[in-house]
């Protein structure tokens, strides 16, 4: 939250980390001394988000006003080396709400008081689905779990893996308590310039493009159900991969790894006789009613569900069209079958792939983006656009 308020917009970049550290320390003291005034609810054994946010914002304003006095600035750590320039953009396009989040932290060490670690910068993009909760939670917590991990200094790859898994585990618990159901992809970059090393970790299909003197390196191999290794893993976990416009886990989710609860938002109500199958489903936000002359061939519910998912293909208009198989011999009389909402876990996991990239000093820039960019803009076009903008705005 602190990364998106007035502190991060107007404060010099080299002061943001130390000031956030001060705010965090003072908030912790306040919560320990007077938890009720900070929003703690004893009956739930948890803090009320709105009251806690108000406390944080008030403390942030107090700290900023305190350090507007130049005499106080000398108590802050001396500025480190210049930070890399960053540019961010987020557009919701036709979505009703913005479900994506991004994070830029130039000085992760100062924020979490880790002086013994090599200077580290953190950049992340989270592409939410079925709501913004998973992306917002990941944007607020993943970097914290990374910096607090015991492997952060000596083994960043393990620290990234642990941070992803912890974020997923805690958010999944939150989903159960608060009845949430969203998920998010993630691509995270941890830069250690003194070590000349870049670490990229990801789940899902958000990608990272590293450009070195005109040479393009796509760091990420996206986690999609179309990958043979991902498909085999999903099927071993009891899931299935179905072609539905594109390959999807259980006919719904177009990524095979993600952070979050990842509910399968689909309900079936079927009335079956020897010649008629009626399906009422909320495959999409709108509810479609489809009546198909179709007899039943599968007796096992799992196979029946897979058959039903294969009945639909989405055209460009995203309207479902039916494929009818009238040659099937009727085998069973069933009045009603209902499938309750099912979780994608354990088929959809949050274990990231992590890649360590040595840097030679010739790197020009790194692009982190979700599929909203890569599905419509080629890597070459994205690189050319950035080069042109840098040339026009040196």
From TrEMBL:
Gene3D superfamilies: PPM-type phosphatase domain. It holds the Pfam family PP2C. It comes from the Eukaryota. Residues 85-394 form the PPM-type phosphatase domain. Keywords: Hydrolase, Metal-binding, Protein phosphatase. The keyword Nucleus does not apply. InterPro entries: PP2C, PP2C_BS, PPM-type-like_dom_sf, PPM-type_phosphatase-like_dom. GO terms for molecular function: metal ion binding; protein serine/threonine phosphatase activity. CDD domains: PP2Cc (cd00143). PANTHER family: PROTEIN PHOSPHATASE 2C, SD03870P. Belongs to the PP2C family. This is PPM-type phosphatase domain-containing protein.
């Amino acid at each position: 939250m602190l990364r998106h308020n007035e502190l991060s917009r107007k404060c010099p970049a080299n002061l943001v980390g130390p000031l956030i550290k001060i705010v965090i320390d003072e908030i912790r003291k306040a919560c320990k001394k007077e938890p009720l005034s900070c929003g703690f609810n004893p009956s739930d054994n948890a803090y009320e988000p709105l009251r806690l946010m108000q406390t944080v914002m008030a403390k942030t304003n107090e700290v900023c006003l305190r350090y507007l006095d130049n005499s106080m600035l000398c108590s802050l750590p001396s500025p480190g080396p210049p930070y890399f320039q960053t540019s961010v953009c987020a557009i919701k396009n036709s979505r009703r709400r913005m479900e994506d989040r991004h994070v830029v932290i130039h000085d992760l060490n100062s924020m979490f008081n880790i002086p013994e670690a090599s200077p580290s910068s953190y950049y992340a993009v989270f592409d939410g689905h079925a709501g913004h909760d998973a992306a917002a939670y990941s944007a607020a917590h993943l970097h914290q779990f990374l910096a607090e991990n015991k492997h952060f200094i000596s083994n960043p790859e393990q620290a990234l893996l642990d941070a992803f898994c912890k974020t997923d585990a805690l958010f999944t618990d939150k989903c159960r308590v608060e009845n949430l159901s969203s998920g998010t992809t993630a691509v995270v970059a941890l830069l250690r310039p003194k070590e000349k090393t870049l670490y990229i970790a990801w789940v899902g299909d958000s990608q990272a493009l590293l450009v070195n003197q005109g040479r393009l390196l796509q760091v990420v191999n996206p986690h999609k159900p179309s990958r043979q290794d991902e498909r085999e893993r999903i099927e071993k976990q009891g899931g299935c991969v179905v072609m539905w416009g594109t390959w999807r886990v259980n006919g719904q989710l177009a990524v095979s790894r993600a952070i979050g609860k990842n509910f399968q938002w689909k309900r079936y109500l079927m009335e079956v006789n020897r010649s008629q199958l009626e399906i009422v489903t909320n495959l999409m936000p709108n509810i479609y009613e489809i009546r198909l002359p179709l007899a039943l061939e599968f007796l096992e519910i799992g196979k029946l569900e897979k058959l039903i998912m294969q009945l639909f293909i989405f055209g460009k208009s995203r309207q479902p069209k039916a494929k009818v198989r009238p040659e099937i011999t009727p085998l069973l009389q069933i009045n009603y079958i209902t499938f309750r909402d099912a979780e994608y876990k354990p088929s959809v996991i949050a274990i990231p792939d992590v890649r360590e990239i040595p840097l030679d000093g010739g790197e020009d820039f790194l692009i982190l983006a979700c599929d909203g960019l890569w599905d419509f803009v080629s890597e070459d076009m994205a690189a050319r656009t950035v080069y042109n903008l840098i040339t026009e705005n040196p």
